[in-house]
């Protein structure tokens, strides 16, 4: 029997996105102080945006609104992945720090796309 989703907190994708934020914040602790208002700040905001938009979309009254916020979450995830790769290329993150974040991001992206596909199937045909 499928689990009933009463709150965004019941969504596995939201829980994994929260874990991703924690991974990002821990990795950013090693960044240079002069990046605090640059890449570090942007990286934090984009990572926090992923679970935030999942939660906000879930609270919206229509499926179309929910899908729009899940799309924003996917965009934030892509933004965060870009910042992850930039950080790696600049030498701020080594492979050991990059890999768990990249793997988590890939998994969350798949979960978001699956959720979106499921919700799109519930919409009336145009």
UniProtKB/TrEMBL annotation:
Gene3D superfamilies (UniProt xref): 23S rRNA-intervening sequence (1.20.1440.60)
Top-rank taxon, per record: Bacteria
Pfam families to which the protein is assigned, alphabetical: 23S_rRNA_IVP
SUPFAM superfamilies linked to this entry: IVS-encoded protein-like
TM ranges: none
Name by which UniProt lists this protein: Four helix bundle protein
């Amino acid at each position: 029997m499928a689990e009933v989703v009463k709150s965004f907190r019941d969504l596995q994708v939201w829980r994994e996105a929260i874990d991703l934020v924690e991974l990002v914040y821990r990795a950013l602790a090693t960044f240079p102080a002069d990046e605090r208002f640059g890449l570090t700040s942007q990286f934090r905001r984009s990572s926090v945006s992923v679970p935030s938009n999942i939660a906000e979309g879930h609270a919206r009254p229509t499926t179309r609104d929910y899908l729009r916020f899940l799309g924003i979450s996917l965009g934030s995830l892509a933004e965060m992945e870009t910042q992850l790769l930039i950080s790696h290329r600049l030498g701020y993150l080594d492979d050991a720090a990059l890999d768990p974040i990249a793997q988590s991001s890939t998994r969350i992206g798949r979960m978001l796309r699956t959720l979106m596909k499921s919700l799109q199937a519930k919409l009336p045909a145009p």
